[in-house]
Design a protein that fits this description.
Layout: H1 2-15, H2 30-33, E1 38-41, E2 51-55, E3 68-74, H3 85-88, H4 98-101, E4 110-114, H5 130-143, E5 147-157, H6 159-170, E6 177-181, H7 189-194, E7 200-205, H8 213-227, E8 235-239, E9 245-247, E10 251-254, H9 260-264, E11 278-281, H10 292-297, H11 314-322, H12 325-341
Parallel strand pairs: 3-4, 3-5, 5-6, 6-7, 7-8
Antiparallel strand pairs: 1-2, 2-4, 8-11, 9-10
Length: 348
């Protein structure tokens, strides 16, 4: 699937005179806000280095005597295929506007949008590149001493939603809270247990044609609710309908998938395609007029919480991320036959 959509985007880039955005039409002057951003590159870790786009409030006139939150953002597939496209393919640059900057702690925030090296067939759901991205984030924080290390938040959607999950499960002592939108797979019970002390906001749409509402969204929410130590700090937003994703602002691609643009306007988008929005916390209480920035701002890193995150084992990375599916199936069949031969199981 990921290879297919990369090929599709490559064809669009070649045959289209312009590729203004991947999702729906961007409004409210986001294009001009992108000129305030810069690009940089993280250090090499395990053969990978991650480049990214970033916004610095200090470089744009804010006081260098204050500490500001850092929001780390990861987009979905296709947005990492071309350098800089991770910024131009979505509306999260809207948080650069004074209207939204003023809503953050101390009146501003650093924003960092990482680019998954899709030209190497790595996407944000791959834990292989997570250490390299973590090194890029930490390097950025060291270069920018006004980053408030107690207020580092991670935000991601689709494959980037799993990227956000990977960061929090592998480095839970670094992030104060996380938003996971339309994750490309279920949040497992084991992952939910690692982030049991973390504020998590999960979002999705019932009619999403890429992310299964029953098998991914509901199961993820169930696992989060079951494991959390702080049900009042986790949230679940679901839409009956949401905007679809389009290629080159023209070609329909995935229906009812884009919930992140609403977040880009702090849950107040004027797009009429958002229908039936409902947000609840882990206790089942409905949240009236939820806003993303206020929710993020309400959390700082709790150094007293359990931060026993763990890296995926070498076997897990080899089995899940190196082997092809048919190779995994073959190995499982061999193991089952072995167990059957020696009487541990009975294959009919």
């Amino acid at each position: 699937m990921k290879k297919l959509i990369s090929v599709i985007l490559a064809l669009v880039v070649v045959f289209s005179a312009a590729l203004p955005c991947l999702a729906m039409s961007i409004s409210k002057g986001v294009d001009s806000l992108r000129t305030l951003w810069s690009r940089d590159n993280g250090p090499m870790v395990n053969g990978h280095d991650i480049d990214y786009s970033y916004y610095s409030p200090v470089a744009n006139g804010k006081s260098a005597n204050k500490k500001y939150p850092l929001v780390v953002i990861m987009a979905g597939a296709l947005e990492g295929l071309v350098e800089g496209f991770e910024l131009t393919a979505n509306a999260l640059a809207s948080w650069t506007a004074d209207e939204y900057q003023s809503r953050f702690h101390n009146g501003a925030a650093f924003l960092l949008i990482g680019r998954a090296p899709e030209e190497e067939e790595y996407y944000w759901d791959s834990s292989v590149i997570t250490p390299a991205f973590m090194a890029a984030i930490d390097d950025f924080a060291k270069k920018n001493p006004c980053v408030d290390k107690k207020r580092v938040y991670t935000v991601g959607w689709c494959l980037g939603g799993i990227g956000s999950l990977n960061l929090m499960t592998m480095y839970p002592d670094y992030f104060a809270a996380g938003m996971i939108m339309t994750p490309s797979r279920e949040i497992t019970p084991g992952e939910a247990k690692i982030i049991k002390d973390k504020p998590i906001w999960l979002m999705g749409c019932k009619r999403d044609t890429y992310v299964s509402y029953l098998n991914v969204m509901l199961r993820s929410w169930y696992n989060l609710k079951k494991e959390t130590n702080h049900p009042e700090n986790i949230r679940y937003t679901v839409y009956d309908r949401a905007p679809g994703v389009t290629l080159a602002d023209t070609f329909p691609f995935i229906n009812n998938h884009d919930v992140w643009t609403n977040v880009a306007y702090d849950m107040d988008s004027d797009n009429k395609e958002y229908k039936g929005e409902k947000t609840i916390d882990g206790n089942g209480n409905e949240i009236d007029s939820p806003t993303a920035i206020a929710w993020l701002n309400s959390f700082t890193l709790d150094k007293n919480a359990d931060t026993s995150g763990k890296l995926p084992s070498p076997f897990y990375k080899f089995f899940k991320e190196t082997l092809k599916n048919e190779e995994r199936v073959f190995i499982i069949k061999v193991i089952l036959r072995f167990l059957d031969t020696f009487g541990y199981i009975d294959l009919y």
